[in-house]
């Protein structure tokens, strides 16, 4: 596994745009609420070959303070959204139980993280199952935009802007997970306490995520972030990724995009099942259901959503593309100006604490090279040498 700043051939630095391994940078402290996302310097975690429980223990030990901060941050976030503490706790516990039933080895790793981080499993569940806690309360949140397609050689490439609350911007970290019990090994980023999020595995299978909303969303399902981790842990092909996604009894609506050496797929997941959207050439997704079969109960994430505008803009940009030259090309299409639909979302730091959505991380990935590129903040503000390339 290696980390390469920009296009250079270094494996020892996390790059100019992201923090070096070993600690939270200057922008990750108590003033993170007022820090522009592009100034965040995340920690970088390396996990060597190990059993699942050993990986969990090491993750929990090395990220202990950040995991505690994440638990407290999500508790405050849910409080601000009016979700009672009892509902927070019961939703987290129910999703952890569902994870145990679906993927016992991953559940054991989560418990090891919690023990080493000195938080309860239920507390860690507020982070691991944060999407399901929000779904239980019918809460709507920040949005994301994703592009994925086939390269000239037929392998998968993708790019995404991950939009979330600025007050939680300091909770994400880079990780390099070596092959071991239950995992092929993978690279990418996650929020502190999660085993996986957006990334690429050693077989060249990568995942990205868009949150959707439906009146039938509820708590108690397998955490969607655990589904992402399972794909990264086990999938060696597009078909295996599809099988893992479809096997999970989820309860929060979302779209999981998979890029692999043998192709690309976008799978919408809702209360009425899952539907794979056809991908020919290059495809886009934002934060509303597209599949006709899943429209019953579908709703917008919020009253101020611009999901349809962002999708229309991206579809106009990719119109007629039968293939893409590179992940870099797709990432460039995610750059928007203040007068366009906000694919590159900049924060308004004058707004109240929990009303500051922004692009926290921009991503590009290439299945053929088993690589994922990351940069803090909006791609529209990033210079070429700000990007860090991780190779699984």
From TrEMBL:
<dbReference type="Pfam" id="PF03417">
    <property type="entry name" value="AAT"/>
</dbReference>
<dbReference type="InterPro" id="IPR047801">
    <property type="entry name" value="Peptidase_C45"/>
</dbReference>
<feature type="region of interest" description="Disordered">
    <location>
        <begin position="1"/>
        <end position="61"/>
    </location>
</feature>
<protein>
    <submittedName>
        <fullName>Peptidase C45, acyl-coenzyme A:6-aminopenicillanic acid acyl-transferase</fullName>
    </submittedName>
</protein>
<dbReference type="GO" id="GO:0016740">
    <property type="term" value="F:transferase activity"/>
</dbReference>
<dbReference type="InterPro" id="IPR047794">
    <property type="entry name" value="C45_proenzyme-like"/>
</dbReference>
<feature type="domain" description="Peptidase C45 hydrolase">
    <location>
        <begin position="157"/>
        <end position="380"/>
    </location>
</feature>
<keyword id="KW-0808">Transferase</keyword>
<dbReference type="InterPro" id="IPR005079">
    <property type="entry name" value="Peptidase_C45_hydrolase"/>
</dbReference>
<feature type="compositionally biased region" description="Gly residues">
    <location>
        <begin position="16"/>
        <end position="28"/>
    </location>
</feature>
């Amino acid at each position: 596994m290696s980390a390469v700043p920009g296009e250079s051939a270094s494996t020892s630095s996390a790059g100019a745009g992201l923090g070096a391994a070993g600690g939270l940078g200057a922008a990750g402290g108590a003033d993170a609420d007022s820090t522009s996302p592009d100034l965040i310097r995340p920690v970088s975690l390396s996990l060597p070959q190990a059993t699942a429980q050993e990986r969990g223990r090491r993750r929990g030990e090395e990220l202990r303070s950040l995991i505690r901060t994440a638990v407290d941050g999500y508790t405050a976030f849910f409080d601000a959204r009016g979700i009672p503490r009892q509902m927070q706790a019961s939703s987290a516990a129910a999703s952890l139980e569902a994870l145990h039933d679906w993927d016992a080895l991953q559940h054991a790793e989560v418990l090891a993280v919690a023990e080493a981080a000195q938080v309860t499993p239920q507390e860690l569940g507020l982070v691991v199952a944060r999407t399901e806690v929000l779904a239980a309360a019918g809460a709507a949140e920040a949005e994301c935009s994703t592009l994925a397609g086939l390269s000239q050689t037929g392998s998968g490439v993708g790019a995404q802007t991950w939009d979330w609350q600025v007050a939680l911007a300091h909770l994400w970290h880079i990780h390099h997970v070596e092959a071991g019990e239950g995992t092929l090994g993978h690279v990418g980023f996650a929020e502190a306490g999660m085993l996986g999020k957006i990334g690429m595995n050693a077989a060249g299978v990568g995942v990205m995520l868009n949150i959707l909303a439906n009146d039938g969303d509820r708590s108690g399902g397998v955490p969607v972030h655990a589904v992402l981790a399972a794909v990264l842990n086990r999938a060696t092909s597009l078909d295996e990724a599809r099988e893992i996604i479809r096997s999970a009894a989820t309860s929060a609506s979302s779209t999981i995009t998979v890029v692999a050496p043998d192709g690309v797929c976008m799978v919408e997941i809702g209360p009425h099942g899952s539907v794979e959207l056809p991908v020919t050439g290059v495809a886009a997704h934002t934060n509303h259901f597209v599949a006709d079969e899943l429209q019953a109960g579908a709703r917008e994430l919020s009253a101020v959503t611009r999901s349809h505008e962002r999708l229309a803009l991206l579809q106009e940009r990719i119109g007629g593309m039968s293939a893409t030259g590179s992940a870099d090309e797709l990432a460039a299409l995610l750059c928007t100006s203040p007068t366009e639909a906000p694919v590159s979302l900049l924060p308004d730091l004058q707004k109240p604490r929990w009303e500051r959505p922004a692009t926290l991380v921009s991503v590009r990935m290439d299945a053929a090279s088993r690589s994922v590129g990351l940069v803090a903040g909006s791609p529209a503000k990033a210079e070429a040498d700000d990007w860090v390339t991780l190779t699984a």
